[in-house]
Amino acid sequence: MTSGLASPVGAAQVPAPMTGKTLALHDLSLALRSGVRGPGAADWLRTQSMPTDLQPNTIENISNGRLLMALSTREFWLLEPDADASAAAPPSAAVATEAWPLYNQHSHAWLVLAGGPKADMMAKLCGVDLRENAFALGQVAQTQMAHISVIVAHHLWRDTPVFSMFVDQSLADFAWTALSDAMSEFRASTD
């Protein structure tokens, strides 16, 4: 996908197509993402013509398939699932007064789970209720899955409701395996 970069997911990947009912797991670790944090982060977003009124733990489609995720009032991630990441070194200086770049491209793996029964399957791994009535589109949960820290965002990707999951890169292969195993068990118990 992107020259010079490698996905932290070492598992053999054969992503299933996204259909309404079939569970599918995708590795978007090589998709473009960046962010900004600090007391001046919202001011920087304003200069970039991005929403600044996002509540913490929410995600919003902003344009051209891009997403803006607010983890707090001082930390925002810009996610571009259909754009390739760059191997270029990220900036190291403040982007604005009291606003610094985030290196989430280099710190987190990005896994995406699609399919109608995704919330029921995730119940095997996560104590947070991710069903639609409790975890609507646009919500983000900072929680644990299979005993590892994870950020779960519920949003649309290519007009399909998905869970984007961000885990520490050092745990990406473990997370992929845990999700794949849960998917297999879920399919076996529902067939």
Question: Which terms would index this structure?
Answer:
191 residues; alpha+beta; Gyrase A, domain 2; 5-stranded antiparallel beta sheet; 4 helices; 18% helix; globular
Please provide a brief summary of the model.
By secondary structure, the protein is an alpha+beta fold. It has helices at residues 41-47, 104-107, 118-122, 172-190; strands spanning 24-27, 31-37, 58-63, 66-70, 75-84, 100-101, 108-114, 140-145, 148-157, 160-168. The longest helix has 19 residues, at 172-190.
Structure, described:
This protein has 191 residues and is α+β, with helices and mostly antiparallel strands. It contains four helices and ten strands, in the order ββαββββαβαβββα. β4 and β5 form a beta hairpin. The radius of gyration is 16 Å and the shape is globular. The protein starts with 23 loop residues before the first strand and ends with a helix.
Q: What general outline do the C-alpha atoms trace?
A: globular
- The strand count comes to 10
Order of helices and strands: EEHEEEEHEHEEEH
By CATH reckoning, the class would read Alpha Beta
Q: Could you report the average pLDDT, rounded to the nearest whole number?
A: 89
